[in-house]
Design a protein that fits this description.
By secondary structure, the protein is an alpha+beta fold. Helix content is 47%, strand content 19%. It has 14 helices and 14 strands. The protein is globular and about 100 Å long.
């Protein structure tokens, strides 16, 4: 064999090795990484839609709970007085909520009253079947808090329900209150913020069989253009299909144009192209793959900052970083939404519970002076009844903003505890300092001069405060977290019993055996 043939054979062999190696690298390393990254992104996009529904349902459940644990609702079931319906269900404020149907049952399962929204007003409905056939009445009667999917008219929606009790939940339940909300255009607009994903729900007619079983979670394990899941009611029947469509272009392919061009080029200039391919393509792809694998292992999504000097890869990096920014934005918005009260725009009960637990554990290791303050607007039910719920919401916002202006320190926490009740974790200097703060709170609310002619305390809106004062924190208080809340609540009721528009302070004392 002459040198020329040997050189050609060596060049051909080298070309085949390099070209084959590049192809294998694409198929065995790059492609699985890209597929895994795309699968993770699709899982996140689907879970984000599920989170939108979970967030809406949680707020709707709290809304239903507020109505079902109310003396007026309890009395309506007991007496059947239709004045309750006229003043509440047919009120403009209730009509503005995204509630599409209301049903009242007694504990025998008898439908006492039902209404559904039509053309921006509620119409009474005599038969349950005219609203939906997807409710399991026995389950509603046997368990307090319930939710599930239902077909309502031509739409798919979901219901939430609670047993009806008095406001203090001291009496035995005498009925069940069911609210139904349709998946409306606002929900689908929020769910389809990602342009690379199209989400839709298709109703199944009565008796129509489904090829997909009912599922409670949207889990995917492989790459497909379309994922379909069955949505079941609480009677065990699949009543709708949820479909997630991804563009075909988003699925990584085994051989793309860039790879084919690279292999063809290597046939003519193997060594040069190998070096160029390595520095311009393989190295950045390896870095991308490494970073994506690290994201997968750690669960932390971050921007990719390397440059490849290849337009396709740079465009991929640009699109990937745009997607990362969107993910971070969605995460921040979901976190803010989950920790913020939608009406008053201050922290909600969930955030308070987490902050209270952290604060309690921290102060159990230190010696500080602190207080837990419960605040309640006086005669707010009468205020709502007289001025309307919309004006009541405005008053709640004013009170919350005033309280927020008085608790600016980073270590203090203000939250809406429920209804017209607020709570403050307050790090004070002394009992005298706490008294001055409480007086300042009362004076600030009085200075708002919000008219309240139905109040038995003053002609304007007032506040009552109860504080649990802890003079010196430490390990002794570790197991007394709930006791502090109970004491502050007792102090609040003491302030109310003394005439309201005042405060009361009770101490949390260190046990003698600690």
């Amino acid at each position: 064999m002459n040198l020329k043939s040997l050189v050609w054979l060596a060049a051909i062999a080298y070309t085949l090795v390099i070209g084959g190696s590049l192809l294998l690298y694409r198929l065995l390393i790059v492609l699985p990484s890209l597929q895994a990254a795309e699968l993770d992104l699709r899982k996140y996009n689907i879970s984000a839609i599920a989170s939108v529904y979970a967030s809406d349902r949680a707020n709707f459940t709290l809304f239903n709970l507020d109505w079902s644990k109310w003396d007026d609702t309890y009395d309506f079931i007991r007496t059947g007085n239709r004045k309750y319906i006229q003043e509440n269900i047919f009120s403009p404020s209730f009509l503005e909520t995204e509630t599409n149907a209301v049903l009242f049952f007694d504990m025998a399962g008898t439908l006492l009253y039902a209404a559904q929204k039509t053309n921006k007003h509620f119409d009474e409905v005599k038969q349950l079947g005219n609203i939906t056939n997807d409710l399991n009445i026995d389950q509603l009667l046997n368990q307090d808090e319930q939710f599930g999917f239902v077909r309502h008219k031509e739409n798919l929606g979901y219901y939430v329900s609670h047993h009806i009790q008095d406001s203090a939940t001291a009496k035995k339940a005498n009925g069940v209150l069911v609210f139904i909300r349709d998946f409306n255009s606002r929900f689908f607009k929020r769910s389809n913020l990602n342009k690379d994903l199209i989400f839709k729900i298709t109703n199944l007619s009565e008796g129509e069989p489904s090829l997909y079983p009912a599922t409670k979670s949207f889990n995917i394990n492989n790459l497909q253009d379309t994922y379909t899941f069955g949505l079941g009611n609480n009677l065990g029947k699949v009543i709708a299909l949820a479909t997630f469509n991804f563009p075909k272009s988003s699925t990584p392919k085994a051989i793309d144009t860039t790879t084919l061009f690279s292999i063809a080029s290597l046939l003519t200039l193997p060594l040069f192209i190998t070096v160029v391919i390595y520095f311009l393509m393989l190295k950045p792809i390896i870095e991308i793959s490494t970073n994506i694998n690290r994201m997968k292992k750690t669960g932390e999504v971050f921007r990719l900052v390397q440059r490849s000097y290849v337009t396709e890869i740079d465009n991929f990096l640009l699109r990937f970083n745009i997607l990362v920014d969107k993910i971070h934005s969605y995460q921040k918005k979901l976190l803010d939404d989950s920790n913020t009260d939608g009406l008053t725009e201050i922290h909600n009960r969930k955030f308070f519970d987490q902050a209270y637990d952290t604060c309690w554990r921290t102060n159990s290791r230190n010696s500080n002076c602190m207080a837990i303050i419960m605040l309640d607007i006086d005669f707010f039910k009468k205020y709502n009844d007289h001025y309307g719920h919309q004006q009541g919401d405005t008053a709640l916002k004013q009170v919350a903003q005033t309280l927020n202006n008085l608790t600016r320190r980073a270590e203090d926490v203000l939250a809406r505890y429920g209804g017209e009740e607020f709570v403050i974790i307050y790090h004070t200097q002394s009992k005298l300092h706490l008294q001055k703060t409480l007086e300042s709170i009362l004076n600030s609310i009085n200075q708002l001069n919000i008219e309240h002619l139905k109040s038995n305390t003053a002609p304007h809106l007032t506040l009552s405060c109860g504080a649990c004062y802890i003079e010196s924190t430490g390990p002794w208080m570790k197991e007394l977290k709930e006791d502090a809340l109970r004491i502050s609540d007792q102090a609040l009721y003491e302030a109310k019993n003394k005439g309201r528009n005042q405060y009361c302070i009770r101490p949390l004392n260190q046990p003698l055996n600690s």
